[in-house]
Write a structure and sequence with these properties.
Layout (H helix, E strand, L loop, with lengths): L1 E6 L20 H17 L4 E4 L11 H8 L2 H6 L3 E4 L20 E3 L4 E7 L2 E7 L7 H12 L8 E7 L6 E2 L4 E2 L18 E5 L5 E4 L5 E4 L16 E7 L4 E7 L5 E5 L7 H12 L7 E5 L5 H4 L2 H7 L5 E5 L15
Parallel strand pairs: 1-2, 2-3, 3-4, 6-7, 7-10, 10-12, 15-16, 16-17
Antiparallel strand pairs: 1-13, 5-6, 8-9, 11-12, 13-14
Length: 336
């Protein structure tokens, strides 16, 4: 029996500007806290393997300080004897920033289609995987899988690690379901010799099944990255693997609540607008993530985001948006 901790989509660097021009609460620390909590859990519970299913970082171009802050905590985990497997995701453009830690004997990077054969507690395992296929995954998937080299006749436990959208996966508040297509792996494309599939990319935790019954596990993201995820519980999976059976348990992580309010379109004076906002804000937690939607374009001339942040709790993340269908600016998690 081996114990595996599986997580994905940590998006480190999200809302974590290196030289912010404005002092306000940043969401970036929430992501790093959950990341460290996962690593601490791996060490404290003595897992045999730690798997990251991709999108370690928020984007492909990452400041050196964020890279260091991400990789540095991995060393004590590796030194503790835990085998570590990382899949580059689409946010990294299928390639993780290089680090000396990649040369550690216990660190295994799927920088190309490849496999690692490891004896864990007397159980022969083959860990295979490849970086995110960014285009035409349905067409490219069989060739990548063949290059991994699992060896179909082997008696080893075969685990495939991915960062892809897979048919039947569900996302968003409207439960959008992925269907087989050029950029979606078909549920019938997984061969019978696989015992387990671990994938990142989909931000809602869920367990699918291949046509032959192989579990396909998505742990989801470790924090909410958009309002489409506001109803989702964030966390990771703890798995117990043997040749005879596979058990899994979802572990929730702390995530601050998300709320949205829309201002009345007929209310056009600043004092009453602020009163409505404060009344609604009293009904939600002080550390909530609040999105205020303007009911009229005039609201954007009346209200200033700096004034809103001054009146609302400092622990609250606040954003002011234009009316539905209108565009005022393009928001970036690195913006002030």
């Amino acid at each position: 029996m081996i114990k595996v901790l599986f997580f994905a989509d940590s998006h480190l660097g999200f809302d974590f500007p290196i030289r912010p021009r404005i002092h306000r609460r940043r969401r970036g620390w929430d992501f790093f806290k959950n990341y460290q909590l996962i690593l601490d859990t791996a060490v404290n519970e003595g897992v045999d393997a730690l798997v990251h299913g991709g999108d370690v970082f928020f984007r492909s171009k990452i400041p050196a300080s964020i890279i260091q802050k991400t990789y540095e905590p991995l060393l004590p985990v590796l030194e503790g004897g835990i085998q570590m497997f990382f899949v580059p995701g689409n946010h990294e453009r299928s390639r993780l920033p290089s680090s000396p830690i990649f040369h550690h004997n216990n660190f295994h990077l799927f920088d190309r289609p490849r496999s690692f054969s490891i004896d864990m507690n007397g159980l022969e395992t083959i860990w295979g995987g490849f970086p995110n296929i960014r285009n035409q995954v349905q067409k490219e998937f069989p060739a990548h899988l063949a290059q991994v080299g699992f060896g179909q006749d082997s008696e080893a436990l075969k685990i495939l690690c991915l960062h892809q959208a897979i048919e039947d996966a569900v996302v968003g508040v409207q439960d959008y379901t992925f269907r087989k297509g050029s950029d979606v792996v078909g549920i019938d494309q997984f061969p019978t010799y696989l015992n387990l599939v671990l994938s990142g990319h989909i931000h809602r935790q869920q367990v699918l099944r291949s046509r032959t019954g192989t579990p396909i596990i998505y742990p989801g993201s470790i924090e909410r990255t958009s309002f489409a995820e506001r109803l989702e519980t964030k966390g990771f999976f703890m798995l117990h693997l043997s040749k005879e059976d596979i058990h899994w348990e979802f572990r929730p992580l702390p995530a601050r609540s998300m709320h949205e309010m829309t201002l009345p379109s007929n209310l056009l004076d600043g004092q009453n607008l602020m009163r409505v906002i404060l009344e609604q804000a009293e009904k939600i937690p002080d550390d909530a993530i609040l999105r205020i939607r303007s009911g009229a374009e005039k609201h954007l001339e009346i209200l200033r985001i700096a004034d809103l942040r001054k009146e609302l709790p400092e622990s609250m993340n606040v954003d002011l948006l234009p009316p539905v269908g209108k565009t005022r600016y393009t928001w970036s998690a690195y913006s002030d």
